[in-house]
């Protein structure tokens, strides 16, 4: 009797890049689009951008693609969309993010990014909903990620793989975003493991070590994107002020609501940025 592995990336002998190549082949077959140029992971608050950037040519359930897990959260759409941009470029929109806090390991967290690279994408746009430390960032403010602090104590890189992260969040792409919206602020994204939010003391620590945004997703993905040779644009929607900066308790419902209110505005902004790439 043979045992069936639950997930191809759970086999420690599996090569994650081969699994990503298999996923890219699934995407080509299911969408009819051989290669993509740009990939976007749309986090909470950003999903509507998919409707605004171009013409959707295929929308497939992520579960049809090798290595993709079922979405953990309602509100996180588990689909992959192939979009034809007005420029003629092809965008792959990943509406299925696996978070580190789900406990499936970092290989599964970055599988979508590696898959995007395997489809040919050279630009990876990572978006998220996050907490803000600058008190002037009202809920609903979009912020460019200028750099990150990875406080997960983990890495998607395995073995002696030394990858330079000096210009991880591409200054070129940030410049394009600012040419579209000169008022966009920037900040250092700090990834915690979650799923609990920070204590006020942790938020003060982040502030004192140079962080401005707190979240649970993007740093590990950005590292994998850079390893794969992609240029990274990171954007956070500030849905709440971080614990202790805002004096009232954080609630997931409030975070979702702030995201919904801001969604049309920030999605339109992202669509304009994508149009300029
Ligand atoms: I939305 O305040 C959202 N995600 N770590 N802290 C962390 N993640 C978040 C927060 C927050 N808000």
What does this structure look like?
Helices cover 31% and strands 23% of the residues. It has 277 residues and is an alpha/beta fold. It has a single domain (12-127, 143-190, 215-236, 262-275), classed as Rossmann fold, CATH 3.40.50.1580. It has a 5-stranded mixed barrel with strand order 5-8-7-6-9, surrounded by 4 helices. A hairpin with a 5-residue loop joins strand 3 (79-84) and strand 4. The N and C termini lie far apart (52 Å). The mean pLDDT is 92. The structure holds 8-iodo-guanine. 8-iodo-guanine binds at residues 44, 129-131, 192, 194, 197-198, 214-216, 239-240, 242, 250, 255.
Topology:
Layout: H1 16-31, E1 38-41, H2 49-52, E2 55-61, E3 79-84, E4 90-94, H3 106-109, H4 111-118, E5 123-132, E6 141-150, H5 171-180, E7 185-191, H6 200-208, E8 213-215, H7 218-227, E9 231-241, H8 252-275
Parallel strand pairs: 1-4, 1-5, 5-9, 6-7, 7-8
Antiparallel strand pairs: 2-3, 3-4, 5-8, 6-9
Helix pairs in contact: 1-4
The structure holds 8-iodo-guanine.
8-iodo-guanine is lined by residues 44, 129-131, 192, 194, 197-198, 214-216, 239-240, 242, 250, 255.
Short description:
The chain has 277 residues and is α/β, with parallel strands linked by helices.
The secondary structure category is alpha/beta
CATH class: Alpha Beta
Strand order of the largest sheet: 5-8-7-6-9
End-to-end CA span? 52 Å
Strand residue content: 15-25%
Bound molecules: 8-iodo-guanine
Based on CA inertia axes, which overall geometry fits? Answer: globular
User: Could you give a short account of the major beta sheet?
Assistant: 5 strands, mixed, barrel
Rg, rounded, reads 18 Å
